[in-house]
Design brief:
alpha+beta, Beta-galactosidase, Chain A, domain 5, TIM Barrel, 7-stranded parallel β-sheet, Glycosyl_hydrolase_97
Length: 726
């Protein structure tokens, strides 16, 4: 839905000799990009921000897989006529000549189905460069879009006689840094992003890699200097640089490999089981490669490049897609107080053959009818939308680590979980149920059952699904972030849309803005979330980095709201302690944006702190306006958001190892209105490790002229609810 759309187009065609260099400037004039061909005919770009170099001259191109010269081709198995040229055909990096360039300007305002604001401006200047490779009689297009906040570019492969089907051996996109920047990074991995972030100089990545790689259920680290996007960096002269990708589909996920002698990052695609990195058929294109840059960290958070480089919404009727605030039967199992499995007697399960009625229940199975009703009652009493239940379906006794194909059928409940009664009871209370589909990464099995599973959801009143991909992928040898799995994740989202189901995918590839095109992709995990607070704890500054990295691509189902940080209170054998204050857990509902927000703790812990719980009840999950008040990656983030269709605002601050003192100005408020602010703050002696549950709640009248000083403790934060006085 466009409110305003202007389009100006200018085409310029020159002889090849006159097109040795091209320049592009952002609409506000702060960013400039140069494009040229070097002496080898290789595409080269460089990027500047306010006359400072951001990206030094960097080459672009792809290396294709060598075709077998002896392999017969075509249905008649005819002999190749180009045997002697198979090596030359691998090269999509050099030998180019500029055939054509076209420039254009685009400016629109579009309205997301849900989001951090009700309107998003999409304004850029574009350079389209057509590159001819005479040696192979083929051509490609490189398209650049320069926004006020950064650059996006991609490779396009038009259909043509000599470039139709091809296999990518490697993409050689370079990002040449100007120095030894400070980086906030996780290790390059084909299967997981569930790592704590390391803060270091680029030159230190190699030496810190082994400590940065912690154990995970599925992982494949590819290099001692490989890192994942979105990669956040800061230069010594105060520039903030973010490298990522947008619109990842029908292609492999991109990581970055660092040449730490020359400080040059190069794209590194995830391979398939054969080691190939992309099967392509023209016409096709790569995802966008993105560079967001500013001298103000707040502008990195405010950038909407990732969304703007995706296609508009393809779902015609979006009335069934809506933000959700939910609770769930989850945390007691994460802490190992309860279990997903129904019985401890079965070392092996075969669905359709195993008779659970003949087994002894373990007495700890959390997804039982009575317990779920308790959660439904709590949700209804406190105004939540939905209840998630994990461990409801048969098969959990041997679900993990067995490389098992037929692990779940997604429709058969355990004997103690009455699907029909839960449906009836939840509906009577006005509560939706959220389905859980753990696939155990047996993806082939999930696709076989998907239609039946989604129809089962529709029949039983489930409108959203949390899917999971724990463990190594089946088909064996595939990776979580390879082209095959990238296609699967999108297939699941599209199929869910056919049944009017919203998807919250965990352990999937990290988001790249596809939620604009398919807004029923309402959430993702794809990073180290709150569950790790029960597995040893997250770094204290973790939530001051994630908005600069993981959230650049889309919202995260971080599952905040843990009020009891001492996990031994849930399970005496669990010695983990969440590295957060209670007040910061409230702040995360504002700073960790998601239209899907969970109150992750158990009801009995909330009942101990009902005054603080009020903020979780009040805080919105959909927004008309967002203001980034303070930001420094690794240190602190303070954000204010205006709730959808109201004049009510919510503020959140999360702080790292040094705590933070905010000198807040409320100038974002309407100057003609008066408000009451409820401040949920760390107490003076609060810190994550010594006094995490110490907080204060105060009320104050505020206007747009008000100012306030607030302190967040170490690993702490604060949250403010601001409601208009009518």
């Amino acid at each position: 839905m466009n409110l305003k759309r202007t389009f100006a187009f200018v085409a310029m065609c020159y002889c090849a000799f006159a097109l040795s260099a091209q320049n592009l400037t952002s609409p506000d004039g702060n960013l400039k990009m140069n494009f040229s061909l070097n002496s080898n005919g290789a595409p080269v770009y460089e990027l500047f921000f306010k006359d400072k170099t951001v990206i030094k001259p960097s080459t672009l191109g792809l290396e294709l897989k060598r075709e077998d010269p002896e392999k017969r081709i075509g249905f008649e198995w005819t002999e190749r006529k180009d045997k002697e040229r198979v090596d030359e055909k691998m090269n999509l990096m050099t030998g180019f000549k500029i055939k054509d360039t076209r420039t254009s300007t685009f400016d629109e305002v579009w309205r997301p189905v849900w989001g951090e604001e009700s309107e998003i401006r999409n304004h850029y200047n574009e350079l389209e460069v057509t590159l001819d490779q005479p040696e192979n009689d083929r051509y490609i297009i490189i398209r650049f879009r320069l926004f006020n906040d950064g650059l996006g570019f991609r490779y396009e492969f038009p259909q043509q006689k000599n470039l139709n089907y091809f296999v990518i051996k490697e993409e050689h996109t370079q990002f040449a840094m100007t120095g030894d920047h400070t980086a906030f990074w996780i290790s390059g991995d084909y299967d997981t992003q569930e790592y704590d972030y390391t803060t270091s100089r680029l030159s230190e990545i190699r030496g810190k890699m082994s400590a940065a790689v912690t154990e995970n259920s599925s992982q494949y680290v590819f290099s001692q200097t490989g890192v994942q996007t979105a990669l956040m960096m800061k230069t010594d002269d105060g520039l903030y640089i973010n490298l990522h990708e947008a619109a990842l589909k029908d292609y492999s996920c991109m990581s970055l490999n660092l040449d730490d002698k020359n400080m040059i990052f190069e794209s590194w695609l995830t391979p398939d089981a054969k080691g190939d990195k992309g099967y392509m058929q023209t016409p096709c294109n790569s995802p966008w490669r993105t560079i967001i840059v500013s001298d103000d960290a707040r502008n990195i958070l405010a950038s909407r490049i990732t969304l703007n480089l995706n296609e508009p919404c393809k779902i015609e009727d979006t009335s069934w897609i809506h933000p959700v605030k939910y609770i769930g039967v989850w945390w007691d199992m994460i802490t190992n107080k309860g279990t997903w499995a129904y019985t401890d007697e079965l070392p092996s399960v075969k669905l359709g053959q195993t008779d659970y009625s003949q087994t002894k229940p373990n007495g700890k199975h959390s997804a039982n009818t009575a317990n779920v009703k308790r959660y439904i009652d709590f949700a209804a009493k406190h105004g939540f939308d939905a209840v998630l239940v994990e461990g409801w379906n048969q098969g959990w006794e041997d679900w993990f680590g067995k490389s098992k194909d037929y692990v779940f059928d997604f429709v058969t409940p355990y004997p103690d979980f009455d699907v029909e009664e839960i449906h009836r009871y939840a509906a009577s209370k006005g509560i939706e149920m959220m389905m859980h589909h753990e696939t155990s990464s047996s993806v082939r099995n999930y696709e076989r059952h998907m239609d039946k599973a989604y129809q089962f959801m529709v029949d039983n009143g489930y409108h959203s699904v949390k899917s999971g991909y724990v463990g190594d992928i089946i088909p064996r040898g595939e990776h979580h972030y390879g082209q095959w799995m990238v296609d699967h994740y999108l297939y699941a989202v599209k199929k869910a849309a056919d049944y009017k189901i919203m998807v919250n995918a965990h352990e999937a590839v990290r988001p790249t803005g596809l939620c604009r095109t398919y807004p029923n992709l309402i959430g993702n995990e794809s990073a180290r979330g709150t569950e790790y607070e029960s597995f040893g704890g997250n770094n204290v500054n973790h939530t001051t980095i994630l908005p600069f990295t993981r959230l650049i691509g889309g919202p995260m189902d971080y599952t905040p709201g843990i009020f009891e940080p001492d996990c031994s209170k849930m399970n005496p054998n669990n010695k983990s302690h969440a590295r957060t204050t209670l007040a910061r857990q409230l702040a995360l509902y504002v700073t960790m944006y998601s239209p899907l927000q969970m109150a992750a703790d158990v009801p009995e812990n909330y009942e101990r702190f009902m005054d603080a719980f009020q903020f979780i009840k009040d805080v919105a999950v959909d927004w008309d306006e967002t203001k980034y008040l303070e930001a420094e990656p690794g240190e602190y983030i303070t954000i204010a958001r205006r709730a959808k269709n109201t004049n009510d605002w919510y503020v959140g601050c999360t702080a790292g190892y040094n705590g933070h003192v905010s000198k807040l100005s409320f100038d974002f408020l309407d100057p003609d209105k008066k408000y009451e602010a409820i401040i949920y703050a760390d107490a003076k002696d609060a810190s994550w490790d010594k006094n995490p549950q110490a907080y204060t709640i105060t009320k104050k009248k505020v206007t747009s002229k008000s100012k306030m000083t607030l302190k967040a403790g170490i690993g702490g934060g604060y949250a403010i609810s601001i409601k208009e006085i009518k």
